[in-house]
Amino acid sequence: MNAIISLCHFCEVHGPSVVFCTQPLHVEQREEDPNSSSHTGEENAWHAYRRLKSPTAVSVSSTTSDSQPITKKSDTCEACRSFLPGQSYFISKDTDARINYMSSQYPDNSRLYSIVRQACLRSLSCEVCPGREGPIYFGDEHGHVLSHTFFMKDSQARGLQRWYSVIVVMMDRIYLLNSWPFLVSNLRQIIDEMQSKAEKVYKAEQAETPQRAKRLTMEFMNINNFRRQRSSGGKAARSLVDLTNDRNIFKYLHMSFSWILKASGNRLTEKLLEGSPTEDALIDLEKQEETEEGFIKISTKPNPHKNGDKPDIAAMQFLVGGDDDDDETDGTKDSNDMDGYNIPIFISLRHMRQLLGAPAFQTVAHHILIGNQVIIRCEHKKTVLSAVEVLKQLLPSGCCRIIPYSNQYEDSWKCNFLGIPPTAPLPDHVTSSQLYIILDVICPSKSPPEPSLVDVMPDSTWQGYGIVVGSGGNLPERAPAILCRIDLALSNQNLTEEVVQAFLVAMKEEWMNKVKVLFKFSKAGTASKDDTDRLLKVLGAKEEDEQMLKFWMTGLSAQHRSHLLASSLESSSP
What is the per-residue pLDDT for 74? Predict the structure, then answer.
């Protein structure tokens, strides 16, 4: 993460001061001559890195450059310093990412020093949260800051405590705010650690010499002693090392800040999106869960087709719980599931088409595309879950209402994908209606009928299983055009799984665009059947596609619905 994390302190003598900061330096940032006069901002970072690599230039006193901020001795005290003359920088090297994390008192670059200095002033003066302890965000075009202020006990300070802040400064506001929960939780752990150390020192000093009682004496309240009363030789302020009684406290901060910078960079990555987002992407964004702070949780669910032409079976097993015997739905176990790989699963649409046969697969796909409920029955929950994961690829995300596994039948208005065990009874209206289709996976122990047996290799986990597809009614004679094109792509063995997946995304987006036009047309006013037929002809759709298009209207994102309805009202108004 391209940011600077700094520890700041409100000194009683010098005011807000930058005590310690950690920043990343990219090794490949400058490969040309470092004496070049161009790119001065990058040049200073490169100089700092080159000086740190030199065995004779590791001390603070020997790393001064033209851009290094010069601070007079009288402008700092022990409380304002983290490195004394003769002490070296802290540096950690990430060889894999080719990034070095350098900790010093100030940033080496003068422009960065100015930004961090201003952030320090604001974090310990005007930009504070209620109670003066806790995280807060502020920023402008010069930089964006997450500031976490806190107090630390000090028996020699005014009010018996000192005021500190940890600030995270970066230029990307969106990145900073999306990292808020992660940063705040980890900064809180660092602050708690320092406060705990300071609390122990404070209690030990108070037990030896209670400062509160001493300060109430007349001698301490004398006007000549009130402003600069100090013990132990009259020090102006004590350093963080003295407050915590930990001589390695700044090494601890360096390691902690470096880890936060590295982990934050690994958590969120930018992805280039070409063109406008797809309808499925909009639906996924609307379904994402928000945290208490109002940020979006990031999904880490594996992609079952991440390996291109060969689906990742291990990923699919993980996706449907292949490594665990315990089912997430009701806590029961799959029968005959010894190691997670004895249970047969559907890997892809092409794999399902091979197992069912082309006619049966086309029947199932036709029911799905026009919105009929698909009921999958099997003793093995993982088989049912894999079937749902595969079949839902035929529909836009907004059209999928899924109950992956239930011990009883659920009505079609609740879900259009339903998994149940074979023992679950079905209502009569389901078995006799053409609005439902049942996909039965019969285990070898149930002696499936000969015609239903799947044709697989002898060593396949599907050996001995049967699949029966049944429906109570007849479908329209002509299938939607998109089904014909999908079936043609699945039957073409020259197309890899990766190509098939890209084709499905393109096909769904193409037909969703037609759905948007039809939705706006239907909301614009009362239209006759002839007008609708003419529109379908313009869209390249036919009568057999109309039922599918109407069902797919239910999958439009809320954003598109509101936009299309607003534009329809504007066009219809006089």
Answer: 46
Closest CA to 486 of 511, 516, 458, 466: 511
Picking from 154, 100, 162, the residue whose alpha carbon sits closest to that of residue 132 is: 162
Rounded to the nearest angstrom, the gap between the alpha carbon of residue 260 and the centroid of all alpha carbons in its chain is 16
Number of continuous H segments (helices) and E segments (strands) in the chain: 19, 12
Q: Are 209 and 194 in contact (CB under 8 A)?
A: no
From CA 75, how far away is CA 238, in angstroms rounded?
A: 15
| CB atoms inside a 10 Å sphere around CB 30 | 17
Which residues have a Cβ under 8 Å from the Cβ of 479 and sit 6 or more positions away? 362, 366, 544
Cβ atoms of residues 90 and 48 within 8 Å: no
Backbone angles phi, psi at 330, to 5 degrees: -130, 5
User: pLDDT (tens digit, 9 = 90+) per residue, 390-436?
Assistant: 999 999 988 999 999 999 999 999 999 999 999 999 988 888 888 89
Q: How far apart are CA 488 and CA 265, in angstroms?
A: 43
- The per-residue b/e assignment along 170-188, b for 16 or more CB within 10 angstroms, e otherwise, is bebeebbbbbbeebeebbe
Whole-angstrom distance, CA of residue 269 vs CA of residue 1: 10
Distance CA 512, CA 543 (A): 17
Query: What does the block give as tokens for 353?
Result: 């088409």
404 near 383, Cβ under 8 Å? no
Write down the pLDDT at residue 352: 94
Distance from C-alpha of 311 to C-alpha of 186, rounded to nearest angstrom: 37
HSE-CB for 212 with a 13 A CA cutoff: 8
Adjacent-strand bridge partners of 468: 440
Q: What strands, in cross-sheet order, belong to the sheet with 99-104?
A: 90-94, 99-104, 15-26, 4-11, 161-170, 143-153, 134-140
Mean pLDDT of all residues in 439-465 = 86
As to burial, measured by CB atoms within 10 angstroms (0-12 exposed, 13-18 middle, 19+ buried), residue 299 is exposed
HSE-CB for 264 with a 13 A CA cutoff: 29
Q: Is the pLDDT of residue 25 over 60?
A: yes
Is the Cβ–Cβ distance between 198 and 154 less than 8 Å? Answer: yes
104: its two tokens:
């010093």
Choose between 501 and 29: higher pLDDT: 501
Which residues on neighbouring strands pair with residue 24, listed in sequence order? 101
Beta-ladder partners of 10: 16
Residue 320: count other Cβ atoms within 10 Å of its Cβ. 22
Residue 498, pLDDT > 60, answer yes
Tokens of 140: 């402008």
- Strand 436-442 to 373-377 pairing: parallel
Residue 26 confidence (pLDDT): 83
Give yes or no for a contact between 341 and 322, defined as CB atoms under 8 angstroms apart: yes
- Per-residue pLDDT, averaged over 361-386, amounts to 93
> Considering the entire predicted model, what is its pTM?
0.53
